Amino acid sequence: MRFTLKAYRDTEGVIELALDAVDAGAARRQAEAQGYRVLSTNSAEASGRPRLFAGGGFSVPLFAQELLALLEAGLGLVETVALLAHKARHPDAQNILQDLQRRVGEGRSFSQALEAIPAFPPLFVATVRASERSGHLADALRRYLAYQRQLNALRDKVLAASVYPLLLVGVGGLVVLFLLAYVVPRFSRIYEDVGRAHLPLLSRWLMHWGQVAGDHALALGILALVLAGGVVSLLRRPATRAAIERWLWRVPAVGEQLRIYQLARFTRTLAMLLRGGIPLVAALGMVDELLRQPGLQAGLVRARQAISEGRAVSDAFAAQNLATEVGTRLLVVGERSGELGEALERIAGFYDDEIARSVEWFSRLFEPALMMGIGLLIGGIVILMYMPIFELASSIQ
Length: 397
Fold this sequence. Notes:
Radius of gyration: 29 Å
Largest sheet: 3 strands, antiparallel
CATH superfamily of the domain at 139-397: Type II secretion system (T2SS), domain F
Strand order of the largest sheet: 2-1-3
CATH architecture of the domain at 139-397: Up-down Bundle
CATH topology of the domain at 139-397: Receptor-associated Protein
Structural class: mainly alpha
Number of helices: 16
């Protein structure tokens, strides 16, 4: 497989290499053996997309990764930003990085320059600002990248578990649509000569649908497309998604898992901020957007107020349902040892494991049930189509 690598060497600066290797790790080792420091690696299939862009938007994690690699190579911050701005190929990426280069060159601190550019989220800006007090920008970038990897791993687990059910629904839906739109209308015309009065009730309903579908195929096709477009349009609306989310929160088992998922992101983000040197009360003000459920948001406001008044974090979180029982115990241990950030990191890992177990349990239970339901639906349609033939054969005998 062919890989495109962005790499740095003192004599050449930042360049792109095209190497053939078994995997990305082997391509990286080849480049390092030639004296390069690898900034990023992409397969040839993805190399047509600019490196600082992912899905059409500016990728802050990828920027942080390349920035970290150049800083570890011994370059200064101003020189690093200039190199990245010079090598960016997409016009929007160039504009963002050139704006950043200009602001840093004017003498602003790195965090001030980042804060003035909307492409950089407040969380990243806060992480950099905290590192400026200690002078360890590289460590802050490593924490941020590790945080992003852990969040992506949790999200990928949830998405991977939904792929197979969606595939089953899609294939099953296409088979049912084919039967109802193509096969049943032809059976309906066959049974017209026999007389539908002799058909079982459910078979008569199915054949009636077949006649309607055969006579108005074009109109039904247009109607189906319009309905599908309407559903997609509704799902894209924030109000619709919010209504679905509110409904899911009211489902007992699903609502609890949504709560754990949001608490996992919340505690992991808070842990990164605390370990970066940001005060607790200020960090709590940065993570409120991660709790999308109104009850949790209001609870965070009350917990922050209680903590600012001197109440223990474990007590404030437990009172507002911002931690499970195990999470509360770990918070108590972290408060006693003075390592609250590490305790929050462990809590987030515990939540991740709980979500992984729930996703695995859901997959084992739901996927067979879904397959059985689709099989029963398709089998029912086929049986209703062939039942009159079976009855006719039995009467002849």
